[in-house]
């Protein structure tokens, strides 16, 4: 087990990858799979918590404690640094500060905080509303002030590109960096040229590209994103969407066919599951404990 803090592990991963791919994991088991195959950073989406854990849409309906529950489950299962979506921070300056402190206590390595109003919407939906630049800067200052680990990584997300255009969004991003943010999350960007403009406008600061499916941003490759200034590439719900599609197919097949034979090849096998869970190590430990008991 590493002696580095979660924030330090995230910064190390960021330094070692150009860009750093950050993959969405809606639960601890998905995080274990991502870690095993070699990913260096994982992510918990606020929308993912709402959808997967509570059956709710991504409309700001979940609380800090709802998200923390899933954070703790993931950080207890893996050493891979976790970035967490804390939406608008669940309130004013004190609420934001508390959220950042609690995320650190729960083992998160990084968070991103956005500039939508409290009644937020998915970043790739229309009719979003954002707070003033001054209020967003204050949010960032409150988050930075709450850091108990200097390496804890704070990303300022801005939805202003869709609302106010590129230049205003770049200005807002730069103001957030000056307020202490470690990186910028430019939401719902349309072109590689836009990413390049963001990167140049924030004087080489860290830039996160959100490459989510079926949204406003094309599915750019990590190489072309890096060439246009992105240092982090986020895939927030890719595995979740794939798992949902596979599960729906199983449910429908069971009804139509009466058995699951036709969909076995879409399933992870029992032994594959056991392998990711290190099941046999636990079983051997249990056998050893019982063997000791028999000898008493």
Topology:
Elements: H1 6-16, E1 20-24, H2 28-37, E2 42-44, H3 46-54, H4 64-77, E3 82-85, H5 93-105, E4 110-114, H6 133-145, E5 153-158, H7 160-164, H8 166-178, E6 183-186, H9 192-201, E7 206-210, H10 222-227, E8 232-235, H11 238-257, H12 270-277, H13 279-294
Parallel strand pairs: 1-2, 1-8, 2-3, 3-4, 4-5, 5-6, 6-7, 7-8
What is the gist of this entry?
The chain has 13 helices and eight strands.
Key terms for this structure?
alpha/beta, 296 residues, globular, 13 helices, 50% helix
Overall pLDDT confidence: 93
Radius of gyration over C-alpha positions, nearest whole angstrom: 21 Å
User: In total, how many beta strands?
Assistant: 8
Dominant shape: globular
Strand content: 5-15%
Helix-strand makeup class: alpha/beta
Unreliable spans: none
The helix content, as a percent range, equals 40-55%
How many helices? The count is: 13
Strand order of the largest sheet: 1-2-3-4-5-6-7-8
Sheet with most strands: 8 strands, parallel, barrel
Structural commentary:
This protein has about 300 residues and is α/β, with parallel strands linked by helices. Helix content is about 50%, strand content about 10%. The protein is built from 13 helices and eight strands. It has helices at about 5-15, 30-35, 45-55, 65-75, 95-105, 135-145, 160-165, 165-180, 190-200, 220-225, 240-255, 270-275, 280-295, and strands at about 20-25, 40-45, 80-85, 110-115, 155-160, 185, 205-210, 230-235. The protein has an eight-stranded parallel beta barrel, surrounded by nine helices. α5 links the parallel β3 and β4. The chain is globular, with a radius of gyration of 21 Å.
């Amino acid at each position: 087990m590493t002696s580095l803090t979660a924030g330090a592990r995230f910064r190390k991963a960021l330094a070692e990858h150009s860009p750093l791919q950050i993959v969405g994991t809606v639960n601890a088991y998905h995080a274990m799979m991502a870690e095993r195959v070699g990913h260096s950073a994982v992510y918990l989406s606020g929308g993912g918590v709402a959808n997967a854990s509570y059956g709710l849409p991504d409309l700001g309906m979940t609380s800090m404690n709802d998200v923390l529950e899933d954070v703790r489950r993931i950080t207890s299962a893996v050493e891979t640094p976790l970035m967490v979506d804390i939406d608008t921070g669940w309130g004013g300056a004190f609420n934001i500060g508390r959220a950042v402190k609690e995320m650190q206590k729960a083992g998160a390595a990084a968070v991103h905080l956005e500039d939508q109003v409290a009644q937020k919407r998915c970043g790739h939906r229309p009719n979003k509303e954002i707070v003033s630049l001054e209020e967003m800067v204050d949010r960032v200052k409150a988050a930075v002030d709450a850091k108990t680990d200097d390496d804890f990584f704070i990303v300022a997300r801005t939805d202003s590109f869709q609302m106010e255009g590129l230049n205003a969004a770049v200005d807002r991003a730069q103001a957030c960096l000056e307020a202490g943010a470690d990186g910028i999350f430019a939401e719902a960007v349309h072109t590689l040229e836009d990413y390049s403009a963001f990167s140049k406008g924030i004087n080489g600061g860290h830039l996160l590209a959100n490459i989510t499916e079926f949204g406003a941003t094309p599915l750019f490759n990590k190489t072309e994103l890096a060439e246009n200034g992105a240092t982090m590439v986020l895939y927030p719900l890719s595995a979740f969407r794939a798992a949902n599609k596979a599960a729906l197919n199983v449910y429908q097949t069971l009804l139509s066919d009466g058995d699951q034979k036709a969909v076995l090849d879409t399933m992870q096998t029992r032994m594959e599951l056991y392998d990711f869970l290190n099941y046999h190590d636990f079983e051997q430990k249990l056998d050893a404990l019982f063997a000791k008991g028999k000898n008493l």
